[in-house]
Design brief:
The protein is an alpha+beta fold. It has one domain: Roll (Pnp Oxidase, Chain A). The protein has 4 helices and 9 strands. The strands form 2 sheets. Strands 4-3-7-8-9-6-5 form a 7-stranded antiparallel β-sheet. Strands 1-2 form a two-stranded antiparallel sheet. The protein is globular, with a radius of gyration of 16 Å. It starts with about 25 loop residues before the first helix and ends with a strand.
Length: about 160
């Protein structure tokens, strides 16, 4: 008799996982776990990540759902420069963009929670030389982005988050 049960889906990513094929339910579960840890501790400093030899801080984006209008919290790698942030829609190199990317296009106003501070920002898609500049910053913060780039045919979007006035 053979066991036809599917392999167990891990609760959160591990260094040996190919994130480009990670099931959406794992992404959702892990994001909720990280938001819960940050909420309990009161700081995003508590959710810094170590993955494949890289240590990175995370920030939490609060976006409004493109279809539902409901607010969502999503941890992303912290890429900050002179008071602005980048949000890299890599999804580990998956063939599709993460849901939060579509949320930001539909509703570009976002709250960034960094450390203990929460501030309002407005997102816009970076293009050309500006995109490359932010991409290079992102790769310095999280070198795995370069690996993700090789796993997908899409140009991974980079959004610049500028302070709301």
């Amino acid at each position: 008799m053979t066991d036809s049960a599917e392999p167990a889906v891990p609760e959160h990513p591990t260094a040996d996982m190919d994130l480009s094929v990670m099931p959406d339910e794992v992404w959702v579960h892990d994001q909720a776990r990280l938001v819960g840890v940050a909420t309990e501790s009161g700081t995003t400093d508590s959710i810094a990540q170590d993955y494949d030899g890289t240590h990175a801080k995370l920030v939490i984006l609060t976006t409004r759902g493109a279809r539902t209008g409901r607010y969502r919290q999503t941890p992303v790698v912290r890429v900050e420069h002179e008071g602005r942030y980048a949000a890299v829609a890599s999804k580990g190199g998956a063939p599709t963009n993460p849901a939060w990317y579509h949320n930001l296009l539909a509703h570009p106003d976002v709250v960034v929670w960094d450390g203990t501070e929460r501030r309002s920002y407005r997102a816009r898609r970076a293009t050309g030389a500006e995109r490359q500049e932010w991409w290079d910053r992102a790769v310095r913060a999280w070198p795995s982005y370069d690996d993700y780039r090789t796993k997908t045919d899409r140009l991974i979007p980079v959004l610049v988050l500028e302070p709301a006035e």
